Structures
1.
Amino acid sequence: MENLLEVKDLKTYFYTEDGVVPAVDGVDFELKPGQTLGIVGESGCGKSVTSLSILRLVPNPPGRIVEGEILFEGKDLVQATESEMQHIRGNDIAMIFQEPMTSLNPVFTIGKQIMEAIMLHQNLDKNAAREKCIEMLKLVGIPRAEQAIDEYPHQFSGGMRQRAMIAMALSCNPKLLIADEPTTALDVTIQAQIIELMKDLKDKLNTAIILITHDLGVVAEMCEHVIVMYAGKVVEEADILELYTDPKHPYTVGLMKSKPSLDDNRDRLEVIPGAVPNPLDMPEGCTFHPRCPHAMDICREKQPHLINNEEGRKVRCWLYEKEGEVK
Ligand code: SF4
Ligand code: MG
């Protein structure tokens, strides 16, 4: 099957007064139609900037895509014109964010906002758009959709607002949905409901999804494939089962240990010691070395490459690479 999306050696830097921040520093991944890819890492690892780059929504200045390709159905979005991007956003690629209140306009009804998106991207008149909107509200499980369509965002609960955002994003049948921390602002019960909803919609609509999260539990629920990012780089990539049963990179292992789980009764989570490095002052060698329990001399001097190890697993770590054997 052809890839829907191919990101190749993507570099997105921010040019600040204090220096250059390599927020995304040579990221590669691929996505097939209908596939769900999780991008995992702590805040500041570059996962959100990766998704903003795909939509060409990185604020410029100070941000800029400095290198790489983002091939969407074979077309390089890095080279696309702004008007081409406007067509692609919403039509082919839609995005939902953590806090729907920032993307919903408080002065317009939910229905007006979703209908506007539908009318802008599909050739439908007002009545047909209203019908489609009610259909979408029902699809995402909003009760009393016929009335709810005329309500304002503040009349919706947080969970219902996120459902409305999902309805808006999906109303134009995008080929790719990018969901950036879609459940983080919600309480645990509502989180579980939204995840269920997204799983259900993914099966029904066959939309490819990039799910961005710091929460490995959410990834396990939804994704087939995962990339783990640290300090702007991919440090591990694997199928979900492989990653869970046998994480390779010491950072992934640390993330696993700090993952809360409903059925474990550890009274304290193990948190990875240390902090994400200052992007203006990245450590030499492996950027994870100040926090890594396995750091060796070479780790402090030379950057490891993202390699395919003997088992065919992609990992960026000297433990799996022999010096001089560059691939
Ligand atoms: Fe740890 Fe070295 Fe691997 Fe970096 S390269 S994760 S410091 S063992
Ligand atoms: Mg983010």
2.
Amino acid sequence: MDFKQQFDVIVVGGGHAGTEACLAAARMGCRTLLLSHSVDTLGQMSCNPAIGGIGKSHLVKEVDALGGAMARATDRAGIQFRTLNSRKGPAVRATRAQADRVLYRNAIRQILEGQENLWIFQQAVDDLLLDGDTVAGVVTQMGVVFRAPRVVLTTGTFLGGKLHIGMENSAGGRAGDPPSIALARRLRELPFRVERLKTGTPPRIDARSVDFSGLEEQWGDEPIPVMSFVGSAAEHPEQRCCWITHTNERTHDIIRGGLDRSPLFSGVIEGIGPRYCPSIEDKIHRFADKNSHQVFIEPEGLTTPELYPNGISTSLPFDVQVDLVHSIKGFENAHITRPGYAIEYDFFDPRDLNYSLESKVLPGLYLAGQINGTTGYEEAAAQGLLAGLNAALAVRGQEAWCPRRDEAYIGVLVDDLITMGTAEPYRMFTSRAEHRLLLREDNADLRLTPAGRDMGLVDDTRWRRFEAKSEAIELERTRLAGTWIQPGSPEASALEPLVSAPLTREYSLLDLLRRPELEYTDIASLKGEPVDDAQAAQQVTIQAKYAGYIDRQQEEIERLRRHENTRLPADLDYQRVDGLSNEVRQKLEAARPETLARASRIPGVTPAAVSLLLIYLKKRG
Ligand code: FAD
């Protein structure tokens, strides 16, 4: 059956990539259809109920800055919020929220169902409709044909999904959900490069069977952080505590004793797992000298006693899972509500994509999320948003929007994926960004919201908030720069206990804010009224304190941009470039990048190393 209504953009999959993709396209005015296995699992968190964290919250805030849903849903569903790295510099500070799984899903569904231009239909997609060598729509399991010139595939872990618990395995997209077999088969017929990856999840535990008495409590931060630039702590539901426990020698012995029945170590699983989120059997194998690993015990929600023991993801046989859980302090009598398992799935080599996430193999088709070899909700959401907005731009006949590495973590993510591909599930870290002092989570809106507004992604409410904040920053900066404190004045005396030496000359409040020992709250009300906007005060402070470093990074970017097309000779002898570390030399020799820009993108090739290359090329003439 041919569905009568014609769409501009079809999005397949209602996970974290798919929901952001369809919302973006619909916000931009495209008639958009979201097709997913089940309306009830839209926005479902397949694994741990948490959003954000180091590197990841940067992506969440960028998605938010472009009008996306993830941060807003997190504010409505978060039951514990923390700022990670709060004592470190602003570049690596990150917000993390423990979320109530059901509240999160409900919040996403509410946002989807409130979106104009968006239609939702529950049905598995089994086939792509082609028109010559471009995509023209999709065909569902029931045989319904939906037509659109742009299709975004965000099928996550579902393509050819295979679940493993011990030596048993079964087909599935994740526990309780069907896999996507017909579509996987169809995609394998097309000239895509397909590989297998794997990931895993821990057994869940009933809180009523846990002895919390000897466990370390971990509460969220006060004041409670907020994820969205337009969110507020008043939206947060009741806040909950987490706990910390540890594995021990006995746990490790139990795991070692079960390795012969581990699908991971007996060669049953072929896909490569996430290096930074390894299973407990993997950790014990890789870090054999450690006799204990931390386990964070996180509530799954406000209305369920289920707990997520973060740190013991496993695909060991169930009897081994029971013994290993019972060996952990607090879990001696724990009841497992769901077994841990691993899943293997198909992913497509992201080097077959353009920066817009459109396929080079099949024009009109966009891929986003775990299907591109990434792991994590945030990485998926960021790609979904980009694919959705680029599909919409293409419908309008406009050029693709592809943020650069120095503009957004989204740019870093996509550039890494499409230039280097990935052999293991890719996750974001702040260390992947060369210019991380510019790409802070706190300034994602300043970096991206104007571009989002131009494309039609940012609604009037968000835009007004953004304009008010930008104006408040400017006014406050001007006020601080023009307000002077005289030596010997009452204001200078008020500062004396806070500064190393009394003021000997006149200082502006902005100069004083640059001092490491002084905070905004110390100086803002010495003379005049401080700004009544916490986000604006934070911006003024960071811009003042890190002005020197920020300017230097900006100069570096300008210089690199001027020289990014400078060619590196194919026979360049990297041994002769003074000052390069051996590691960088080896990487350059192995990759032989064609241009300076490409060299700068090789992980480990720092901006300083690029400068050395530039100096060498100039000398060489
Ligand atoms: P998903 O969230 O998987 O969503 C895919 C959506 O597509 C689903 O709604 C599905 O129903 C739909 N769909 C699929 N095929 C079709 C079709 N043919 N037709 C219609 N709809 C379809 N991430 C981490 O960061 N760390 C971890 O430790 C971790 N462990 C994980 C463990 C397990 C067992 C699983 C399953 C996932 C784990 N993840 C982990 C990954 C995390 O869940 C994903 O990164 C994230 O959900 C990816 O989002 P996505 O939108 O790409 O896909």
